[in-house]
From TrEMBL:
Required for melanocyte differentiation. Residues 176-207 are annotated as: Disordered. Residues 176-186 have a biased composition (Basic and acidic residues). The keyword Repeat applies. PANTHER family: LEUCINE-RICH MELANOCYTE DIFFERENTIATION-ASSOCIATED PROTEIN. The lineage of its organism: Eukaryota, Metazoa, Chordata, Craniata, Vertebrata. Pfam families: LRR_9. PROSITE patterns: LRR. This is Leucine-rich melanocyte differentiation-associated protein. It comes from the Eukaryota. Keywords: Differentiation, Leucine-rich repeat, Repeat. GO terms for biological process: melanocyte differentiation.
Length: 223
């Protein structure tokens, strides 16, 4: 889809390009603001890739909520990025995402994935519960132990210790896209259910607010 170059909203080192229905990051953003921007908000577009951020080498905060981003983010290496919100996109493979983020965002401390299938909670599926969500948190924190804030909640020392000890065994199974009716394998042969360890169900008070992705960023900044 062809677009004119609509003006971005700029305030100091903060650049916003919201609600333009862009399917790719316009070249002019990197050319004009790549070396300036420390915080970039690209929410409410139709982005499918973040490869266009290659000129934003000094970026520290990135908000790309409400886009069409899938498992192949194409995110370039951003060594200074500490905050990333990917709420309400189309990410399903949490392990692939985390491996990618570990490689290209070595300074990441704040991550939010609410509203994606990869983040199992009642916003994306009514059959998910707080235990499913807590297992997901343990797995994410096992993969990315330097995170201080995940989704709408701060990471506690107890939670990180539990993730270090058990997170590797709490992998979130990628949702099936197409079920083959001829496949005779029973569900019992799939990846076994991993119960939460006793005393670690602090996810019971988890109240997700994906509709307020911007509010989460504000909480992150204050953390």
């Amino acid at each position: 889809m062809a677009h004119r170059d609509p003006a971005a909203a700029v305030s100091g080192a903060q650049v916003s390009f919201i609600g333009h229905d862009c399917e790719h990051i316009p070249d002019f953003l990197g050319e004009k603001y790549g070396s300036l921007a420390r915080r970039l908000d690209l929410s409410f577009n139709r982005l499918r890739s973040l490869a266009g951020l290659k000129d934003f080498s000094e970026l520290e905060e990135l908000i790309v909520d409400n886009n069409l981003l899938g498992n192949d983010l194409g995110l370039p290496r951003l060594p200074h990025l500490h905050t990333l919100t990917l709420n309400k996109n189309q990410i399903t493979d949490i392990e692939a995402l985390l491996e990618h983020l570990r490689e290209v965002t070595p300074s990441l401390q704040y991550l939010s994935l609410l509203g994606n299938e990869a983040c199992p909670n009642q916003l994306v599926s009514l059959d998910k519960d707080d235990d499913d969500y807590q297992r997901y948190r343990y797995f994410v924190l096992h993969k990315m132990p330097h995170l201080k804030f995940l989704d709408s909640r701060k990471v506690t020392r107890i939670e990180q210790a539990e993730a270090d000890a058990r997170g590797a065994f709490m992998k979130v199974v990628k949702p099936k896209v197409d079920a083959d009716p001829s496949d005779q394998r029973s569900e019992s042969s799939a990846t076994p259910y991993t119960p939460l360890p006793r005393g670690s169900r602090d996810g019971k008070n988890h109240k997700v607010m994906a509709q307020c992705g911007a509010a989460h960023v504000g909480e992150m900044a204050e953390a």
